């Protein structure tokens, strides 16, 4: 493994560790006594003591933290305060919806943004470019959950092409399940695609001004060929960084959009957990989401180096 | 930075700036108006006039509790702007302090600040809000804190970048050799020179803050009823989407107008204050 | 000569769209280039020499318009459609640029970039094109060409990158090579090597070379004929020895005396270098007279009132000046 990959990997581990510390501090130390938080102020001292003992809350903070991450490392996310069952199966079931939703929205975002952004740049200052810029300005300003509501109004209420929400589950046929994710994916993707389109466009425009573009034209390549063979890959470098950062927004957005379309994903689990004061579930869900974002950004960094040979020699 | 004398004549001709400033002024006007007057009391429930279509009496109709939608939207502007001002304000104060500190001290302090800023991308505002709501319960303050946390690294990064560029200039060297300390140089020379950058970023972050606030209220993590908020209105409208679809339209339009206005204003300000960027958009 | 020249440029004009209106940056340039001939274009930056090169290639930036005639192989390149031009560029007409640093794509290895014109024009497979690229790298003097094929631009020195650029330009054995300041960005020691290389390749292949430079030394060493450009016009043109010996135009004279010369064995000259007073004229308001008059110490009222005529100085040597009587002393007359 090249040096830069090792270094990136070390950064990944450090970031994951820092993330777990923050989540642990905020959710387990900041509230003071989780037992009091969960059982409420009416609880007797005895009840509190039993609860603390049951969840190991009477041990020193450092022990509790180390215990928690040691279990996290092997996929043990603790026991839910409310359901009295292991947290992981609860979350795993929901992830089967939230991950595909975020992933399909990401895919849609990238495809839309690259196509529109490159087209707009190629049409610089012509009507096509101006139209795409105008629409994307509007797209950036839309709340994704409202856009979801508008999609429901149009496609469910008026046209009746889709149901207004709900999820049949993957068991009853992949197609039906995928269909119920179409509108949510679109409402998630539109805002992010609008942002990414603008970034793609300006990145392509910037690369088009580079000297090597002129060299490629001097070789006899057509404008089209230069765009595909020389410009796009160079333009992708900043775009990919943004894609990585957008994934966090998409995952967070997925939690919101799940509410719009009544999808039983991680979002709903989290909101139930909040109203149940089920800190253990919130902690697991939040740390998992944060880990996902951090890991995706790590993957993006690695991808970066695949595209740009200049990074391989250096340790960044 | 541009000299003040040439700012307004250029600004008046700048399309993004004019449209953005107009829309922003419109939203601020709504909020101010609602302090002294709304057509109806925003919280007044009228069971007999539930989900009335828009009419002369109720320009934008009434919601499922018979409240006047126009009054709710006007009052909702107050909530959005207040959360935005507080959250971005905290972000500016704390983030800029960190950024200025990093640029003035360099070394391990800068490293620490930047690593912290890099790391916070793992916590989108909604994730912070979820954690806060799990402990303290949902509230408007919850939105403010979550959005502020998200804003601090943004300003830290932007301010540190611009401040480093100022520190590299010759007149800073002159000031240093005149024996001025780094705190004094920061206040006298660095800060005035990066104000424009902070204002531009602040405008754009304000737009993002309004979007985030709306999402948090919509989820029930932020502003709680009966305080009117645009996100909450959309949440309530959703339950009625088959019976009164128009209820889902107006609050969203209000959010979009506010966000669009601030985005355009920010773009315009950037063009007008940074001549290097003006040709690229 | 009775045979038609390889390239014949007649009244080439390049108009630029600027914020302050349209300006003409190249104002009626005419010259010819024969097979195996080397032509130098010399002048200060902004005199229109690079735009001339780009106009020949049909690669003018957006907002620039060329008119006149550039005749190659019976076709006016200025009116040829884009598809036919693409067929000529990199194939019959090749170009080398100033900055080897930025003129190569940082994300593609050298071998692929050299192979590209071969795949494009000769329809070679990638494999065969890369084999040819090895020969080309060898020809331009890059050691271990087979290994260097997979090197990326950032792994090479400036001189090596420029050699790779030259290999790329030579890939399809072009008829005409246009080199725009090919050595300006390089170290002095490397400059000579690259010029030697270009000269040798031109001699071997018999192609025509247009060498653009602001450096009279480079021009003197490399080309047969020279064209001195000022404010978009060729103010003096002729065989390089003739031009350097006579320096009929005051501008050419100024350029020449502004060049540092250190003869071997002689002490360093103590006198400051003479410079040409004034600045390059603003293309927005050029006079309908000699554009150099404002900076010329020989200027007389006529110079500021009327365009100077093209004065014949010798065989194929002419200058656009009213005062050649002064510059040439008693020897020449209009």
What oligomeric arrangement do these chains adopt? heterotrimer
Look at the structure and give the mean pLDDT of chain A. 88
Q: What would you call the shape of chain A?
A: globular
| Overall radius of gyration of chain C | 21 Å
Helix/strand structural class of chain A: mainly alpha
Give the beta-strand count of chain A. Answer: 0
- Low-confidence regions of chain A: none
Helical fraction of chain A equals: over 70%
Major β-sheet profile of chain A:
none
Class per helix and strand makeup of chain C: alpha/beta
- Written as H for each helix and E for each strand, in order along the chain, the element string of chain C is EEEHEEHEHHHHEHEHEEHHHEEH
How do the strands of the widest beta sheet of chain C line up side by side?
6-7-8-3-9-10-12-11
Q: So how many helices of chain A?
A: 13
Helix segment count of chain C? 12
What separation lies between the terminal Cα atoms of chain A?
Answer: 14 Å
- Strands of chain C, count: 12
Per DSSP, what share of the residues of chain A sits in E-state strands of 2 or more residues? under 5%
Q: What is the percent of helical residues of chain C?
A: 25-40%
Order of helices and strands of chain A: HHHHHHHHHHHHH
The profile of the biggest β sheet of chain C is:
8 strands, mixed
- For the record, give the distance between the C-alpha atoms at the N and C termini of chain C, rounded to a whole number: 25 Å
Task: Walk me through this protein's architecture.
The complex is a heterotrimer of chains A (316), B (281) and C (334). Chain A is an all-alpha fold. Chain A has 13 helices and no strands. The longest helix of chain A is centred in the last third of the chain and has 38 residues. The two termini of chain A are 14 Å apart. Chain B contains 10 helices and no strands. In chain B, helix 3 runs parallel beside helix 6. Chain B is elongated and about 75 Å long. Chain C is α/β, with parallel strands linked by helices. In chain C, strands 6-7-8-3-9-10-12-11 form an 8-stranded mixed sheet, sandwiched between helices. Chain C has a 4-stranded antiparallel sheet with strand order 2-1-4-5, with helices on one face. The chains are: A mainly alpha (316), B mainly alpha (281), C alpha/beta (334). Chains in contact: A-B, A-C. At the A-B interface, helix 1, helix 6, helix 7, helix 10 and helix 11 of A face helix 5, helix 8, helix 9 and helix 10 of B.
